């Protein structure tokens, strides 16, 4: 289309008939949720469930207020505020593309160094849920998995509780005001890919609060709830291709979101101040979230790391292209089937083997332009969170870890910053310089990589893993990524 319709409330009726627009009156929505970390995933997932609920004439008092605690979040705020916080969701199926405008978000608080506006918003008694997507590495955990009270951000928030840097410090500051005013607690809902994300959020909140005010920490522990949840939908980053897709629909959206057709959300029903009826539009409330989490985190998120690290080394740009590469796909399938799936339990309606088949099809969808770079980002959180728990279980049962050791060697090689064709891999991790230093040292002494205790804990002391990792890393150096993957597929590593 030649002419673009700028996205805002006023222009919704002018959009093309094949673009689905909200069927509810947005002027009648009132807030009930503050969401911190408002990126693409939230808008394609949790905000979509609420939007569809509003289309049923429900949940009009549960609208979302967006928030962020990083300076970069102010750019997102500016984009979304300019279009009345509307979002274009573009669903990409292999044979069809469709567009939908969602309107469940109604405002975005100013992004400030002391988080004053965010704290004030969360003190509003109407806010009953504070949800978060702050990435797997955003919960201040140490190498042992506990709360890292020595982190500079935590030290700052403990010393300056009225001017916190972190989302958690801001939540605690708001809860202090609510406790003193008698307006009650709120539910903290993590929507990040962490095993037991609600329990981790609970521990982070109470541990930080305890550094500030022991009585407040006890009140949060006794009154707030932190349900575990499992979230799933493949949502690529937005770039020129995604903007162009919105333009094909005639929509002038500055921050459109593309996503696959599949969505899943499994949540514990523990909400201290009520909740929307998300189950009316496809979410599942369950007391067995752990099993769903384990299946998704180990097979899908872990599988993503298998693909992305190998893909980066072989200069393959997208996950779907990785699935077309015979060597990478064989590596992915062999590790999933033989080393990860045996440590995953079935959930209602889905066996581990069926789930591997499902994600293989999802990853291979060529319409989803999900880059290996995006998926490989923050390996320092994703490998310990997604792959190392399985690695430890297999070692504990004296099972082979050849594929998982190769996955770690691929990550290490990627962190040298060089692809097999000699091109440069730009920094792609919050700890990139530390990782690159260890990876380059590993070229001389391979064990240096797994001796990074902050990421591997005591795994360097596991003889079977250490010896296999060294063998894989040396093989990657000597014969390259493709031949190493082919050798593994033949069972000769």
Shape summary: globular
Instruction: Give the number of DSSP strands.
Output: 14
Q: What's the rounded overall pLDDT mean?
A: 96
- Give the C-level CATH assignment of the largest domain: Alpha Beta
As laid out across the biggest beta sheet, the strand order is: 7-4-3-8-9
Radius of gyration: 23 Å
Provide a descriptive summary of the structure in words.
- InterPro entries: 6-PGluconate_DH-like_C_sf, 6PGD_dom2, Mannitol_DH, Mannitol_DH/Oxidoreductase, Mannitol_DH_C, Mannitol_DH_N, NAD(P)-bd_dom_sf.
- Residues 32-279 form the Mannitol dehydrogenase N-terminal domain.
- GO terms for molecular function: oxidoreductase activity, acting on the CH-OH group of donors, NAD or NADP as acceptor.
- The chain is α/β, with parallel strands linked by helices and 493 residues long.
- It has two domains: 5-287, Rossmann fold (3-Layer(aba) Sandwich); 290-489, N-(1-d-carboxylethyl)-l-norvaline Dehydrogenase, domain 2 (Orthogonal Bundle), CATH 1.10.1040.
- Helix content is 47%, strand content 11%.
- It has helices spanning 40-44, 46-55, 73-82, 116-122, 152-159, 167-181, 197-212, 214-223, 240-248, 289-313, 319-324, 326-340, 352-363, 372-376, 379-396, 402-414, 432-442, 447-450, 453-456, 463-489, and strands spanning 5-6, 19-20, 31-36, 63-67, 87-93, 96-102, 105-108, 129-132, 187-190, 229-232, 251-252, 257-259, 264-267, 284-285.
- The strands form four sheets. The chain has a five-stranded parallel sheet with strand order 7-4-3-8-9, sandwiched between helices. Strands 2-6-5-12 form a four-stranded mixed sheet, sandwiched between helices.
- A hairpin with a 2-residue loop joins strand 5 (87-93) and strand 6 (96-102).
- Helix 12 packs across helix 20 and helix 15 runs antiparallel to helix 16.
- The model has no long low-confidence stretch (mean pLDDT 96).
